Each structure stands twice: as structure tokens, then as C-alpha cells.
UniProtKB/TrEMBL annotation:
Phosphatidylinositol 3,4,5-trisphosphate-dependent guanine nucleotide exchange factor (GEF) which, independently of RAS, transduces signals from tyrosine kinase receptors to RAC. It also mediates signaling of membrane ruffling. Regulates the actin cytoskeleton as an effector or adapter protein in response to agonist stimulated phosphatidylinositol (3,4)-bisphosphate production and cell protrusion. Residues 216-312 form the PH domain. CDD domains: PH_SWAP-70. PANTHER family: SWAP-70 RECOMBINASE (PTHR14383), SWITCH-ASSOCIATED PROTEIN 70 (PTHR14383:SF6). Keywords: Cell membrane, Cell projection, Coiled coil, Cytoplasm, DNA-binding, Membrane, Nucleus, Phosphoprotein. InterPro entries: EF-hand_SWAP70_N, PH-like_dom_sf, PH_domain, PH_SWAP70. This is Switch-associated protein 70. Signal peptide: none annotated. Residues 322-543 form a coiled coil.
């Protein structure tokens, strides 16, 4: 019932979106409140869904007349509680969809001329609701578009242009995720994928796909059915569905003659030709048995296989093949989406880790730049100190030279100044020591500079190692992507192997069909030989019987009653018998 409710909601959603909406996205008062609009809409839904309409419940649900359907109560909660929850499935799906189509088609259907009729557009709209994703606003993804176009192309008997659809799919994926119902109708109505086909062929193909996907028609066609009372054979149009075979007077389905209810206990068997009817098979149910004659052996085998497949599905409790295939396609898309989301999550994690490492590297780089700036500043100070010392030393040297000159000039004159000169020398020695200490300081500064340079080299080595680690993570990321591609390729290989196995099975089936035909031909030859042998045996028995006088030619006799012998009615009259007796007595007397 949940799947049925989802299908109903899709059609009703189209009808609601065709109504005027207010800013809050709810149905406006003018559409549902004015002139009893909500009563009419609810009544129509209840009518087509075979649900009893309860106007009192509607009024109780919308007790606030000032707000009505746009109140907190809302129309959708009412729809779910009082209408959809009561749906039992005993309604005409086509009539329900046609009512919703009537509400939304006029507003949304393209005004440009299409190659399909309004009826075909309605069927495409219903198929869209069946194949669309279970999220709103409704769209049909490219995979389902390809599935639908392939079905229509096969029904038209044309070849599928995969390359043409791939170009269209690439153009579609660059702009959005899928198509709306009206865009799908425009695509099919434009004839882009049905070039060279007339309107009638396209219409018949859409109708065939509609019957299969929406009406669950697994097979249909004309066959002869043997009556239960009169035992006469009548041509009927048979329609096979998941749990019943209905037969009609003609393919317009106007006059239904009966149903063959199928369940897990039913079986179908092939019958030999009899009573001038060929290609016979038998459908056995609990209460009745139906004899049916197909038009040829191929149709007979197709119907037997289709009915047996349907019975097997009923035994297993499985849905129809097209619904099961749609569910598998959805599960596969969900699986691929989950894998893609997981891959994106891993990519984001790697990207975040990469960004963190980049930030750490940036911090280390700034620290190195700061250390280099400090080292440059210290080097600048050292050079400045060295220049100052050199200038001071030069000044001191000049002063010493001048002092020495003065002392040499005054040595003879002022011996008393010798002590002063020696004192000055000691001062100069002290200054020399200071100069040596300054040189030692300079040497120590150079060693410090060399230490800073070694630290900078070590940090650069760490940066190189971290860059190598990042490249390793990048390679691991690429390997993960390649593994995902490999898994996709493995799935594709499995699909190709299954297709090859299917092709081999089909070839074996064709070979068995040829062997069966050869066996039938051999059977016919043996049958003819047996008939020839039987005729020869009969001729031989006739000759023996004639030779021994046991039989005679049958001639017209008199109208008198015939005599009865131990072997049955005699072939002679009473007069003839008397004549034979006289002749026999005469022969006996002559012999005596």
C-alpha cells in the first residue's frame, strides 16, 4: 500500500502544482476555499478512488474558516488521513490519472506543435510518474529516460542510437539532474529519437509501453478458445496480467467475455493437435480447465512461456518483471550514489588534511622567515659593530702615531713623560685586548650564524619530507579512485558475461528447436513407413483369404432378409443357400 500511495501522490502533486500557490507555497484560498473548491476536489478524488466522501470530516479538519486550506491543518494532512489511507486498490488507475491530467495539462503542456497526440502525451505523463524518482519536485533521471526511449524504439521496430543518446545525456548532465514530465513529453513529441517514423507508429509504440508498464500487460493477442458448454471454438483477444488472463471479443476491450484467474497452483501444458486444431495448449486451474489454440507454434511457445513465468512469479510472491527491474535500477542508483558520497567524503577529508598540512607548512615557513630576518638583523648589527671597531681602531692608530711622534720629539727633552708614555702603552695594550675580545665576539657571532643556517637547512629538509608525504597521500587518493573505476569495470564485465551466457542459452534453445523439428520429421517418416507396412499386411491378408475361399466379392443382393452365420451376416440369400445345398448333395452322390 505504501507503493500505491506514492504513485497516487505523484499524480496528485501534478494537479496541486497546477493550482495557484501563495507565497508560503500552500494552495490559495481562491482555489480551494472559494465556491466550495475544497469540497469539489475532495469529492472528485473520493469518486475516482472509490473512497466514501465524508464532508463532515472535511469541515471538522478545516474548522478555522479564516484560514481554511492554508491554515496549519493544511490540505495534504487531510488528504493522507481521510482519503489515501482508505484506498484499497479497487479503482480505475487510468480514470484517476486522467482526472489529475485534466487539472494540470492545460497549464503546463507545451503550446508548440508535437508529433504525438494529446492521448499519447497523457500516456507519457503517466509513464513519467511511474519511472520518476521518489522526491519532489518530480524528475526522471537520464538512466530512466534511456530505458523509456529504448522501450519505445524497440516497440517501433527501429534500431537504438546509443551514440546519439550519449551526446544528449552529456548535454543534459552539464545543466541539471533530469527532466520534468513536460520536458519529457516535449522530448518524445519532438521526434528527436524517432526520426523516420510516422505518427501512427510512434503512437502504437507509446501505447504498447503504456500497457506493459502501467496496465501490467505482460502479453496480448488473438487466439481460439474452446467453450465449456457448446464445445465450439471462438476467436478471442487475450490479455495476460500478473494474476489474471482476460479475454475479449476484440482488441478494443469493449466487450469482456471472462477471466482466467491465475495463482501458484495453476499450470500450463502443451497438447497434441486434435479435431483439426493445431498449436493447442491447456491451462489448468483449481476449478476449470481451458483449451486454447494459438495461430502458430511460435505463438504457442511464447504464450506457454509467458503464462508459466507469471505462475512462477505468483508462487515466489515476486512483482511483475518491469516493476522488479525498476526497483533494481533504483537500488543500483542508490548504491552508486552512496559510493559517490562516500568517495566525496573521503576526498573532503583528504582535502582538509591537505589544508591542515599546508597551514602547518605555512607556519613553519613564516617561522623560518622570522628566523632569517632575525639572523639578518644580527648580521647587520655585527657588521655595524665591526665597522665601528675598525673606525675606532683606525682612530686609535692615528692617535698612537701622533703620540709616538710627539714622544719621539720630546724623548730627549722630557724623560719624565716616559711614564706617561708607558701608561699610554698599557692603555693601548688594554685596548688591544678589547679588540681581540671583539674579534672573539665576531667569531662567536659567525658560529651562531652557522647554527641558524643549519637549523634553516633542517627545517627545509622537514618541509621536503612533508611534501613527499603529501605526494604519497595524493598517490593513495589516485589509487582509491582507480580502485573505484576497477570495481565499475568489474561490474561491467559481469554484465557482459551474463549477456554472453544469455546468448549461449538462446543459441542452445535454437539448437534444441532444430533437433525437435528433426525429430518430428523423423517421426512423420516412421509413421508413413508404418502405414505402408500396414497397407502391405492388409493386402497380403486379403490375398490369402481370397485364395482360401473365405471371402467373396460383395454384389447387390435381393431385398429378402439375409441369413446369420456363426461368423456374422451371410453374403447370400435363402434361395442361393438351397441351390448350394443341392449342388453339394449332387457332388456327394457322384462321389459315392
Amino acid at each position: 500500500m505504501v507503493g500505491l500511495k506514492e504513485e497516487l501522490l505523484k499524480s496528485i502533486w501534478h494537479a496541486f502544482t497546477a493550482l495557484d500557490l501563495d507565497r508560503s507555497g500552500k494552495v490559495s484560498k481562491s482555489q480551494l476555499k472559494a465556491s466550495g473548491g475544497r469540497r469539489v476536489l475532495s469529492h472528485n478524488l473520493c469518486t475516482v478512488l472509490n473512497v466514501p466522501h465524508d464532508p463532515v470530516a472535511l469541515e471538522e479538519h478545516f474548522r478555522d474558516d479564516d484560514e481554511g486550506p492554508v491554515s496549519n491543518q493544511g490540505y495534504m494532512p487531510y488528504l493522507n488521513k481521510f482519503i489515501l489511507e482508505k484506498v484499497q486498490g479497487n479503482f480505475d488507475k487510468v480514470e484517476f490519472n486522467r482526472m489529475c491530467w485534466t487539472l494540470c495539462a492545460k497549464k503546463n503542456l507545451s503550446k508548440s506543435p508535437l508529433l504525438i497526440s494529446d492521448e499519447d502525451a497523457f500516456k507519457v505523463w503517466v509513464i513519467f510518474n511511474f519511472l520518476s524518482e521518489d522526491r519532489y519536485p518530480l524528475i526522471i533521471v537520464p538512466e530512466e529516460i534511456e530505458y523509456l526511449l529504448k522501450k519505445i524504439t524497440e516497440a517501433m521496430g527501429a534500431g537504438w542510437q546509443q551514440e546519439q543518446f550519449d551526446h544528449y545525456k552529456i548535454a543534459l548532465n552539464t545543466s541539471r539532474e533530469g527532466l520534468s514530465a513536460w520536458e519529457l513529453i516535449d522530448l518524445i513529441g519532438s521526434g528527436h529519437f524517432s526520426k523516420g517514423m510516422d505518427r501512427q507508429t510512434v503512437s502504437m509504440a507509446i501505447n504498447e509501453v503504456f500497457n506493459e508498464l502501467i496496465l501490467d500487460v505482460l502479453k496480448q493477442g488473438y487466439m481460439l478458445k474452446k467453450g465449456h458448454k457448446r464445445k465450439n471454438w471462438m476467436e478471442r483477444w487475450f490479455v495476460l496480467k500478473p494474476n489474471v488472463i482476460s479475454y475479449y471479443v476484440s482488441e478494443d476491450l469493449k466487450e469482456k467475455k471472462g477471466d482466467i484467474i491465475l495463482d501458484g497452483n495453476c499450470c500450463v501444458e502443451a497438447l497434441p493437435d486434435k479435431d483439426g486444431k493445431k498449436c493447442l495448449f491447456l491451462i489448468k486451474c483449481l476449478d476449470k480447465t481451458f483449451e486454447i489454440s494459438a495461430s502458430d507454434k511460435k505463438k504457442k511457445q511464447e504464450w506457454i512461456q509467458a503464462i508459466q513465468t507469471t505462475v512462477n512469479l505468483l508462487k515466489a510472491g515476486s512483482p511483475p518483471p518491469h516493476k522488479e527491474a525498476r526497483q533494481k535500477r533504483k537500488e543500483l542508483r542508490q548504491k552508486l550514489l552512496a559510493e559517490q558520497e562516500e568517495l566525496e567524503r573521503q576526498m573532503k577529508e583528504l582535502q582538509a588534511a591537505n589544508e591542515n598540512k599546508q597551514k602547518e607548512l605555512e607556519t613553519v615557513r613564516k617561522q623560518l622567515e622570522a628566523a632569517a630576518a632575525r639572523a639578518a638583523e644580527e648580521e647587520k648589527k655585527r657588521l655595524q659593530t665591526q665597522v665601528e671597531l675598525q673606525d675606532r681602531f683606525s682612530l686609535e692608530l692615528e692617535r698612537e702615531k701622533m703620540v709616538r711622534q710627539k714622544m719621539e720629539e720630546q724623548v730627549a727633552q722630557k724623560s719624565s713623560e716616559l711614564e706617561q708614555y708607558l701608561q699610554r702603552v698599557r692603555e693601548l695594550e688594554e685596548m688591544y685586548k678589547q679588540l681581540q675580545e671583539a674579534l672573539e665576539d665576531e667569531k662567536q657571532a659567525r658560529q651562531d650564524e652557522e647554527t641558524v643556517r643549519k637549523l634553516q637547512a633542517r627545517l627545509l629538509e622537514e618541509e621536503t619530507a612533508k611534501r613527499a608525504e603529501l605526494e604519497k597521500w595524493h598517490l593513495q587518493q589516485q589509487q582509491t579512485i582507480q580502485m573505484t573505476e576497477a570495481e565499475k569495470q568489474e561490474l561491467e564485465n559481469q554484465r557482459m558475461m551474463k549477456e554472453q551466457a544469455l546468448q549461449v542459452a538462446m543459441e542452445q534453445l535454437k539448437q534444441l528447436e532444430l533437433e525437435r523439428k528433426e525429430a518430428l520429421e523423423q517421426y512423420e517418416e516412421v509413421k508413413k513407413k508404418l502405414e505402408t507396412a500396414a497397407n502391405n499386411t492388409k493386402s497380403w491378408k486379403d490375398k490369402v483369404a481370397h485364395h482360401e475361399g473365405l471371402i467373396r466379392l460383395i454384389e447387390p443382393g435381393s431385398k429378402n432378409p439375409h441369413l446369420i452365420t456363426n461368423w456374422g451376416p451371410a453374403a447370400f440369400t435363402e434361395a442361393e443357400l438351397e441351390q448350394r445345398q443341392r449342388s453339394w448333395k449332387g457332388k456327394k452322390a457322384a462321389s459315392e
